[in-house]
């Protein structure tokens, strides 16, 4: 192996150990502690946030009714209490009726072996003692063996009849009046954090009088329900094994 290739391989191995050490340090600092909840932040300031752009209809002139106390589009006599501006809150009724049963069991094992030898090589096999140690054998020049295994188990049994309410904030008002909303909810139960994320585009007309909207009326809906913590962690292979799975060509 050339010096360049050796240094490159050493650098890759060192990088893998560094990543493992960083992850291990964070895990060790949280031993015996429940996972921390995320701070409340402005969704528009998060990395990767992009304003929503959608086809817009032609602008229509505003119509005013003179000598009238009733405002068009209002559901209350004096003031519409529904969300309409950036920063307003709207309650999303999340209803997921899918049924599923998960019994996650992850078992992986890998065993590799490579042997190379030459009992006869144009007579040069008798010259090995001049290049290699005297105990070198021509029929067993190279022998490689590697093994890896992981096992993770997790059981989740859900009817997927998720019914909950989550408050979402209006982050953008589109030119046609539609609202872009985004909301996040975190619930910690013992040492597991469950996250619920709701985002999408809604019509102001679909918001009911009590300032709620059904999740089925959200366009471009993004609803994520997952978690993080000890149960989720045991189902993932170690960082070093993930790195080796990517780098090893066998």
Defining key terms:
elongated; 4 helices; 250 residues; two-stranded antiparallel ribbon; alpha+beta; 6-stranded mixed sheet
The number of helices is 4
**Derived structural class:** alpha+beta
- Number of β-strand runs: 8
Strand content: 35-45%
Largest sheet, order of strands side by side? 7-1-4-5-6-8
Return the average pLDDT rounded to an integer: 75
* CA distance, first residue to last residue: 19 Å
Largest sheet: 6 strands, mixed
Please give the radius of gyration in angstroms: 30 Å
Helix content bin:
10-25%
Can you tell me the overall shape? elongated
Order of helices and strands: HEEHEEEEEEHH
Model description:
By secondary structure, this protein is α+β, with helices and mostly antiparallel strands. Among the domains are: 34-54 and 78-99 and 159-247, no CATH class; 111-150, no CATH class. The chain is built from four helices and eight strands. It has helices at residues 3-29, 128-131, 230-233, 239-247; strands at residues 89-96, 100-116, 142-158, 162-173, 179-189, 192-202, 212-214, 219-229. The chain has a six-stranded mixed beta sheet with strand order 7-1-4-5-6-8. The chain has a two-stranded antiparallel ribbon with strand order 2-3. Helix 1 (3-29) packs antiparallel against helix 4. It starts with a helix and ends with a helix. The model has no long low-confidence stretch (mean pLDDT 75).
Please specify the SSE layout and strand pairing:
Elements: H1 3-29, E1 89-96, E2 100-116, H2 128-131, E3 142-158, E4 162-173, E5 179-189, E6 192-202, E7 212-214, E8 219-229, H3 230-233, H4 239-247
Parallel strand pairs: 1-7
Antiparallel strand pairs: 1-4, 2-3, 4-5, 5-6, 6-8
């Amino acid at each position: 192996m050339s010096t360049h290739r050796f240094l490159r391989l050493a650098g890759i191995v060192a990088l893998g150990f560094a990543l493992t050490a960083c992850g291990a340090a964070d895990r060790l600092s949280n031993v015996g502690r429940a996972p921390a909840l995320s701070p409340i932040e402005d969704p528009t300031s998060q990395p990767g946030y992009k304003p929503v752009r959608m086809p817009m209809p032609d602008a229509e002139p505003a119509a005013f009714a003179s000598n009238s106390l009733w405002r068009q589009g209002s559901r209350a006599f004096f003031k519409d209490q529904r969300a309409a501006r950036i920063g307003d809150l709207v309650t999303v009724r999340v209803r997921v009726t899918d049924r599923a049963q998960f019994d996650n069991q992850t078992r992986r094992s890998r065993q590799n072996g490579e042997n190379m030898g030459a009992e006869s090589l144009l007579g040069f096999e008798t010259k090995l003692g001049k290049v290699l140690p005297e105990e070198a054998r021509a029929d067993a020049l190279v022998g490689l063996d590697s093994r890896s295994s992981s096992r993770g188990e997790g059981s989740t049994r859900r009817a997927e009849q998720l019914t909950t309410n989550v408050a979402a904030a209006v982050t953008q008002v589109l030119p046609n009046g539609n609202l872009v909303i985004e909301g996040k909810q975190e619930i910690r139960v013992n040492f597991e954090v469950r996250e619920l994320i709701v985002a999408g585009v809604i019509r102001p007309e679909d918001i009911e009088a009590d300032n709620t909207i059904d999740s089925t009326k959200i366009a471009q809906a993004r609803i994520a329900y997952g978690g993080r913590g000890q149960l989720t962690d045991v189902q993932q292979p170690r960082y070093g094994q993930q790195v080796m799975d990517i780098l090893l060509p066998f």
